[in-house]
Prior knowledge:
The complex is a heterodimer.
Chain A: E1 3-8, H1 14-22, E2 39-42, E3 51-54, H2 66-75, E4 80-86, H3 90-102, E5 106-112, H4 114-119, E6 122-124, H5 126-133, E7 137-139, H6 148-153, H7 168-182, E8 183-185, H8 192-201, H9 203-252, H10 257-262, H11 282-308, H12 311-324, H13 332-340, H14 342-347, H15 355-368, H16 372-382, H17 387-411, E9 420-423, H18 431-448, H19 450-465, H20 468-475, H21 477-483, H22 491-497, H23 501-508, H24 515-527, H25 532-542, H26 544-568
Helix pairs in contact in A: 3-7, 5-7, 9-11, 11-16, 11-18, 11-19, 15-17, 15-25, 15-26, 16-23, 17-24, 22-23, 23-24, 24-26, 25-26
Chain B: E1 2-4, E2 13-19, H1 23-31, E3 39-45, E4 52-56, E5 59-63, H2 65-68, E6 71-75
Antiparallel strand pairs in B: 1-6, 2-3, 2-6, 3-4, 4-5
Amino acid sequence: MNKILLMGNPNVGKSAIFSRLTGARIIVSNYPGTTVEFTQGQMKIGEERPIVIDVPGTYTLEPTSKAEEVSVRMLYEGGLVINVVNATNLERNLYLTLELLEKDVSLVVALNMWDETKHQGIDIDIKKLEKELGVPVIPTCGLTGEGIKELITRFKEAKNLKTKPSSDSDKWERIGEIVERVQKLTHHHHTFLQRLEELSIKPLSGLPIAVGVIYAAFWAVRLIGEGLITYILEPLFDKAWAPLMLKLGALLGEETFLQNVLIGKLIDGSVDFKMSFGVLTTGLFVPIAMVLPYIISFYLILGILEDFGYLPRLAVLVDNFMHHIGLHGFAIVPMMLGLGCNVPGALALRLLEGRREKFIAATLMTISIPCMAQIAMIVGLVGQRGGQYLGIIFGTLFILLIVKGLIMNKFIKGASPEMLVEIPPYRLPQFQAVIKKLWMRVSGFLKEAVPYVLLGVFFVNILYALNIIQYFSSLFEPVLTGLWGLPKEAISALIIGFLRKDVAVGMLGPLNLTTKQLIIGSTILAIYFPCIATFVMLVKELGIKDMLKSAVIMIFVALIVGTLLNIIL
Amino acid sequence: MIVDLTQMKPDETGIIKELCGGCDFTKRVQGIGVRPGKRIRKVSSHFWRGPQTIEVDKMRVAIGWGMAKKIFIEVDR
């Protein structure tokens, strides 16, 4: 046994079992489609070290989206298959089980979410189910780890039955028989959470709840983010780091190349973390003291909403609106993830069915959904001048989202597909699970973003030292100054924006811009092009041709919107 | 009485009679657990041809308007 595949319907807890088996940390949430690409890890069984693969969820072996396609392809590579089945919805889940039994693979069944059956008045006779299916069935609970040991010890009993292929209706008939024999349902009373489920999906109560949830979420993100900055990180940098940097600066010698790169310019004889632009001053301050606090607060709140199971409900509520911009409700998921960072957002585009939908969603996201790092910088920089200016920037982006969506929906051939999605029950988020997920995302930011920010700041200094910025600024002066009313030096921000958007926004700081220029600059930086990481991911997901088309739209929109803002404001 | 899913009122119950659509459509809808013979309860219906949510086998599914039009139900009225 060298390979183990975890397969099952969406949102049955494959990822939770995966991390129990391998100890690897992966994102687990409460909505169908959390995993869109296969994740692999290694586990230890005695002397063996098989590779375990967490396969995206699928209802049948006939794929309907790219995520499902990935799953089915994996199957033909052989190995042991653990069919993860949602015990609270045996009937539907067994369809895939019967399909898997027909294939040439060894199978065991993990009857997951076993703990929930008790609350729901579901009683399943495991021994009988094993007999009916002919393969081992082990009750598990991925979140708590119950049953995982037994699952592992029974791997060796896995069987490859390769049953005779049967038709759809035969399968459903057989499933009916099985369920009749092994499952007993008893009546149970609706719990508070179930009543809340109902309320949040009915339009009249659901819409006010959605407004409340979104408002509370933003309020909490801001409160936590600002709190971390004001009470912890800014004092830390001002009181502890700044004096250290001053000493280091003196050691390096005034106006030397090293001082310029590491410490940057001194403002009135001291370090100004937003203006100095040295690798060790602004380069560290931007990711740690300006962006990190919002990354922490955003992912904390997003994680709670995800684990609670709120996102699919939001998807249903906004479905209508999304149809007008060429998408369906579930496209809200990549958008929400994109708000944290466009890269996972781009990956989640796989949840969407067609090429048209993906193209529209990708273009809308890259133009109108700034990532949290960029938002944090805009809030930090523009927010000082007044909250209403933030309103102009984010308002413009939102209007753009709608206008572009309407236009693309009208002019790109085809219709927006219909939504068909399972809405999971609400589950109270578990503290440990939320913190674990938060830590995974935050450490991802620290490992992947911070080095790029430092690199970005380093590049800025090199580009200036080599007079490259000066060259480009005269080249693009007609656009920058002529159309957008920005100083030509702002080209440096646009260049660095390819690398990191947060650094790019930060670079507007030392340019002494007027408020109007700051608004235009920040808005254009959000629109004109994705950062390199997102770009690479989008090329993979959309293909180079669609990505180039999308890029043309972005540049075009940036030109128009910048000019319009310059005229209106 | 047989109606399509969009014509059902919230909280009404009934039994799915027929899925009238192409192979792709029936496969997808059946795969998610919405099949002829199933007893369902309509949970909600959203404004302006929005998605229809139903409860089937203690599980909730949201179905877009166009698809819901192709699902026929014998309602208990």
